[in-house]
Amino acid sequence: MSKNIILLSLILFFNIGTAQENLNGILAGVFRNEDKTNQEIQDAIFDGEFFYMEKNNKDQVVKTINSKRRIYTKGADFQKSEYSEMWVNGKLLSEEEMRKEMKKSRGDMQTKLPFSKPFRDNYDFSFQGEETWNGKTVWKIGYEPKQKGKDNIQGFAYVLQSDTNIVQYQFVPTGLPFVLKNFNIVLDYSKIDKYWVPVKFQLDMELDVKVLISFTHKFIRMEEQYSNYKFNNGLTDDFFNN
């Protein structure tokens, strides 16, 4: 074996080892931040402003939904929403119309994020380099489930180099049906008080829906902005069960 080949092998071995050490250090920081936040925030109340848009295969908007809700959460298991207003195609709905629309619209989406303590052992993580996000230097950390399933996701997260807090997730659920051609979810975080919490959710998808014997193409966007966070309000389990 030539000296050049030996040298190249040593360089590759060193780089792989360094990357793995970097990943382990980053993950330790992320896990520590996630655990600390979950321990300190017992519950949260915040507002959500939701927008839904559906386009047909001619790029024409065929439906829009706007709504406002108050969201209550406690840990990973409890979530409750109270809707105050809803518009469909620009029309303000009555309470009865709003209840009917909610039955056929999306429910509360509770994604099992891979860095959370109950789920992190289900994922393989990878170091995917360094990037700039909103003027900040971040690490790009990939994640993929060890087993495919409807409750799992795959994608990457941007992690601040300064303090190993997550500022953005991008992911898709695993095991998507064949009618979905493109699917992407982005979850942005921002620091409120001393906690990094979700401030924007966006989902884009394209799908082919069968109508009689042919397929029609649809584009759907869902977006929700979160604000007015209040932490540790003393919410009980009974509040969510009633």
Secondary structure elements and their pairing?
Elements: H1 3-40, E1 44-55, E2 61-74, E3 78-88, E4 91-92, H2 95-104, E5 123-133, E6 136-145, E7 153-160, E8 166-173, E9 180-192, E10 195-211, E11 214-231, H3 237-241
Antiparallel strand pairs: 1-2, 1-11, 2-3, 3-4, 5-6, 6-7, 7-8, 8-9, 9-10, 10-11
Structural write-up:
- By secondary structure, the protein is of the alpha+beta class.
- It has one domain: Clam (outer membrane lipoprotein receptor (LolB), chain A), CATH 2.50.20.
- Helix content is 22%, strand content 51%.
- It has helices at residues 3-40, 95-104, 237-241; strands at residues 44-55, 61-74, 78-88, 91-92, 123-133, 136-145, 153-160, 166-173, 180-192, 195-211, 214-231.
- It has an 11-stranded antiparallel sheet with strand order 4-3-2-1-11-10-9-8-7-6-5, with helices on one face.
- A hairpin with a 7-residue loop joins strand 6 and strand 7.
- Residues 6-17 have low confidence and may be disordered.
- End-to-end CA span: 73 Å
Strand-residue proportion: over 45%
* CATH topology call: outer membrane lipoprotein receptor (LolB), chain A
| CATH uppermost class | Mainly Beta
Order of helices and strands: HEEEEHEEEEEEEH
Global shape: globular
Strand tally is: 11
Number of helical runs?
A: 3
Tell me what the CATH architecture is.
Clam
Strand order in the sheet with the most strands:
4-3-2-1-11-10-9-8-7-6-5
Overall average residue pLDDT: 88
Residue runs with pLDDT of under 50 for 5 or more positions? 6-17
Radius of gyration: 22 Å
- What structural category characterises the helix and strand content? alpha+beta
Taking the sheet with the most strands, its summary is:
11 strands, antiparallel
Total number of domains: 1
Helix content: 10-25%
